[in-house]
Amino acid sequence: MSKAKKKIKVIKIDVDKCNGCRACELICSSFHATPKYSSNNPERSRIRLIRDPIKDIYLPVYAGEYTPSECTGRNKYVLDGREYSECDTCRASCPSRSLFKEPDSGLPLKCDMCDGEDEPMCVKWCLSKALTYEEREEEREEEPKLGEMEIGLESLVNRHGLQKVMDTIARLSKKG
Ligand code: SF4
Ligand code: SF4
To answer: Would you kindly state where each structural domain of the chain is located, as residue ranges?
Structure first.
């Protein structure tokens, strides 16, 4: 299998620089509003701030993959003497909490790195530089390119199911 270079986008989070201003939540929800910039509801943001000023906790968390099931256990983190509660560091949209769910439809939200922008909006708006953007190249295995016949067969299998396609081929081959 051949290898190809792939651009990997990374946002680095320096928790110590975050002051809890929540500008990242506002700009993300506003950028993704329909029409763009027509509202700024943090509930629709793909980055959320876990915030407890009394304990000096300001933790920006990005929405990751959706998961249909809850964890069977929970993890607690103690970082620099501060204890984070069970779900604070998790990026998933899951049944246990309302975080990272579109408030009207309930559909899961996921950070798309502001696809099409030269720099993610949350990074641009984070004036304290808690968020920084990096790009790096990684070599990845290239998916094998399918031939015309394989593409056709694949779409038939997706549409009708493998068994039906195989039955049809068997029937046709008897005729031939
Ligand atoms: S904009 Fe930056 S400083 Fe403000 S809450 Fe977000 S990450 Fe923290
Ligand atoms: S990178 Fe874009 S989509 Fe992701 S949290 Fe930041 S503003 Fe939202």
So the answer is: 3-141, 145-176
